[in-house]
Amino acid sequence: MLFAGFIRISILTLILFSFRMVAATPVAGEDTGISSPDSGHAAEPEPYQNRWFAFPFAGYTPETSLMVGGVALRQFKPARADDETRASQILMSAIYTLNKQFLLGFYPNIILPEERWIFDGSHFYSFFPDRYWGIGPATRSAEELDVEFRVFQFEQVFLKKISADLHAGPILRWSRLSHLKLSDIDGNPVPEEQMDLEENSTLSGIGLSVRMDARNSITWPTRHHYVDISAIYYSEFLGATHPYASWKLDARAYFDLLGDGSSVLAFHLRTRLTEGQLPFQEFSMLGGQEIMRGYHEGRFRDANAMQIQAELRGRLYRRLGFAVFAASGEVWNRFEDFSLDNPKYAAGAGLRFDMNPKDTSNLRIDYGIGRHGSGLYLTIGEAF
Question: I want to staple 92 with a disulfide (CB 3.0 to 4.6 A). Which of 72, 120, 211, 249 is the partner?
């Protein structure tokens, strides 16, 4: 399995480097010169250069298999933004996968001058055939089922500056899951009375996010920290079919080992706790392309989850870099049920290619191996 994974990495690397990135017409006043590959992480020129990237994209994750489509990325600073204001980015994507999944996404992260406001959004539609092993920390591989569903989500965070690195503000989230179906590995539908899952669910929630973000970059952080604490309540009054509450902690720290951004040690802690009536897609899950790489996202799921990872990032040659990582995590229902009798852990390594040396934004290839599986990841942006 490991050898086959590296064969896939080699093939996809050739596909990736055969793509031609097409830059859109620059806005007035932009410098259209191409930076030297040796520029690395040098200080940004004056003024900041707003840029568009539009290109065909091939990616791979265990959840999607090979995916192809188009991606547009805008990196910019609003008018009158000073040097201390970090660059904003807007990512748009349309992806189709060999697992017959379709994903259409719009992900804005807008930072206004002096960082007075941050608007962070995640808006997408997906049709997503996937795999399902049930709920709990001890589900067995033999219990695997096929699942498919459709999701439309709108989530927007509005963060007001409180102090230098501290922002707080409301979260609005609306999500609709429909056409949920389960079948066994032979394609036979699971009878509705045996599913213990509802076919449709609607969530309407409002919450609060408190974010301390001192990172020097949102696409390639090399120093300082990021902590986001959020709580969302989904109420029947707001139209939720499954009233429940969730609390989430996302904490990250970055250490520039050599002082020039070429070698970074990063740590990441993610905890999600819930209480109430959870629909299918709202259980806390392990795995995915951001944390616990090597575990299929949702291989283990339950009301609560905690995951932690560490990653060493470095530069190999010009735009080419590398990363090595390790992670551990667990899911549980009630706190008195929490146990480490069946530990979950994963580790792996990967390569990076910098699409924009003047404001680093990486294409990444990772291969992770976990106690309960392994996985290849070819996608855009750092894991965290």
Answer: 72
